[in-house]
Amino acid sequence: MILASSMSGQAKPAANSDVTRATLDNGLRVVIVRDPLAPVATVEVNYLVGGNETPAGFPGMAHAQEHMAFRGCSGVTADQIAAIYAQLGGAGNADTQQNITQYYSTVPASDLDVALRINAACMQDIQDSQAEWATEKGAIEQEVARDLSNPTYKFITRLNEDMFSGTVYSHDALGTKDSFDATTGDMLKDFYKRWYAPNNAILVIAGDVEPAAVLAQVKEYFGKIEKKTLPARPEITLPPVKAESFTLDSNLPYLLAFVSYRTAGTDSPDFAAVQILSDVLGSQRADLYALVPQGKALETGFGLVEAYPKASVAFSAAALPADADAKPIIAEMRKIMSGYAANGVPAELVEAAKRKEIAGAEFRRNSIPGLAEAWSEAVAGEGRNSPDDDVEAMKKVTLEDVNRAAKKYLVDQESIAAELKPQPTGAPVSSRGFGGGEELTAAPTKAVELPPWAASKLLSLEKPPSESPSSDVTLPNGLRLIVRTEKITPTITVEGAVRNDPQMEAQPGKDGVSDVLDDLFSYGTQSLDRLAFQKALDDIAAEESAGTSFSLEVLKADFSRGIQLLADNELNPALPDEAFKVVQSQTAQYVAGRVKSPGYQTSRALKTALYPANDPSLRVATPQTVSSLTLDDVKQYYAKALRPDLTTIVVIGDITPEEARTAVEKWFGGWKASGAKPDVDLPGIPANKASAANVPDPSQLQDTVNLSETVGITRFDPDYYPLQMGNHVLGGGFYATRLYHDLRQETGYVYNVDVAMNAGKTRTVYTVTYACDPKNVSKARELIERDLIAMQHENVTDAELQQAKALLLRQIPLSESSVNGVAAGWLARAEIGLPLDEPSRAAQLYVVMKAPEVKAAFEKWIRPNEFVQIVRGPAPQ
After folding, report:
1. What is the pTM of this model?
2. Nearest 5 degrees, angle CA 593-CA 594-CA 597?
């Protein structure tokens, strides 16, 4: 590792004045990155242990230990940990990779010391009791079943086995049911004692913090933890790759074809060149993407998917119609890669890739969690001094370096081909459903007494500040422009949306017209064809997309050119006839596969059970409707749906409101609306009736369960807020909330359970989702119904109400911890017609809300026995 300062316990100034580093006497390395974007901070504790270090026969040991850190640490119980993370805002989690285990949480900056103390408690000791593991084992096995039900995950797993046969890289960190069944609390404790140590960890803190004060807290909380003598790490000697091909079943609506290569690892001097090569091969100006406009693939891509110190995995991928033959496209991808290996890559694409990587480093600073992740990955995952090391290495990459890497790593004789082939599924089958018959009630979850150091901070509730725009104006053509000046980085982010609903606006028999239009935007403008338009974006290292939702990320110096290109694409799309024919055919083929897929069958079964027979939301594109479209149909839909008086643009970055308005008016000001505004609001809907259906999905090991019902309110109903408060009593705070406590902590039935209320302008749907073994579907539903009925019959406890308020209030600043988060929030509120400061207004309501208001709202609107239940997967037992 390069990071460590030789100064024990002393801060070492970095080249960047916003970065402070230190190494404590016990070996803990600390990186503090100041970023005043929002009043939040992200803490990531990176332990340098993962799937590589797991004992033979127990590939998920590091992953299991990660789970157990939430089941009790030094001086804090599992319930206290759950309550603390919930009241911090619920944004805490962890993940285990091949060579690191990361614990991360994003919290209000004023609560940073609480997050530091809880992490220090787990570095001091993790309980690893057999009793806690016996329950958590059920949840982690559900996580395994979930991932093994994902066809892309199964592909990566099989690919690693072939790429890295005989090494620790051949298995990932997830683990298996058999290994977890054989694991004990004592085994986990032994693993913890060997690897969890301050001298085997790197602590990264990013956000609106004062580095000197934070470093003092780190020393206080972590400084007395004793260092350990670490075990030897496994030797990794990679055997040659043997060329192979394989096919896996898939539940996706399209066929995926891959050609994979083993490339340079993060320790290799070739790694930077391979990153640039990957960008070049994935460019929309390169030969691989050209397969899309040629009509040979629905989509293509190239990327690094696994990056380990000794080697990485990269692959080219192509999406095809579900019933296509993958062999010709695999042969075509091999030919393209071999051509680049033999003849080299275009010099201008290398320079474009370098510009985008340099610009991307600036955009990473526009998210506090993203900044912490970037530093953790660079320093802990790759052993760099900072993320800038990767950027500086890529700046030095030459065309010769990239061509050498292409010749060295794109070796056809050492590649592995694979396809994920969709399997047909049966239509939904009605079932009797599960649960729904008894008036079950249960005592509320007992109150958790927080440690004094947490209680003193978390039990006080304050209305958080909410960011306001610098400007909010409506231009003469009706376009709404919202601007926020933010000078953290020399970048500008633009997010825009046109209020629309194809199910309300498309002519009868023209379903799918919006899908065809969306894909045609990538074919350039009336003045710049597809390649010329992409080159113009590459020249300024901009990322752009157009359509009813559109966006732009561009450096400050190039904002005027960027907004010109965005407007040209949005207002003057080329919509070429030849491209229309290709996109129409591709869309029809995709739709043909989609309607047979389990995902579509599940969604369709839910909608037909929830909504009346003639509801517009039941309109759906078919191969026939898409094939019947003409280019004139697309142009007419474009003219009807895209209009300035239904459009909102949000601009955030190093720009003044005046500068933003001048540029937007210059390029969007000539956009005029004609005719009456289309009706884009769905009609209201009546209450649904209870029903149940099963959708077979042979590829899934577990059942995915959706419980949904219509609710007779809209987003503007006053009862929206007490229902949201109740939802945060039920979920959103890990073990600390009722559903997680009952379905995960106590029974281990599920890995995740989510409760959500999708409240719109005219209709609302209430949903609870979970996944579990088929034998536990009805048991889990009974617990859900019990908890919902209890919400109607009894007031939530004072402790639950306080915790739900803390969750809701602290989530407000956390939602604004990135530029994109702020933009998305303002855009969503503008589209539905809410005030931009709605979170601040909601906070005022939440602070004074009483338990009887929550009970009354649940009693009035929620119908526990009237859910539509859709189960995807094996038949429930």
Report:
1. 0.94
2. 90
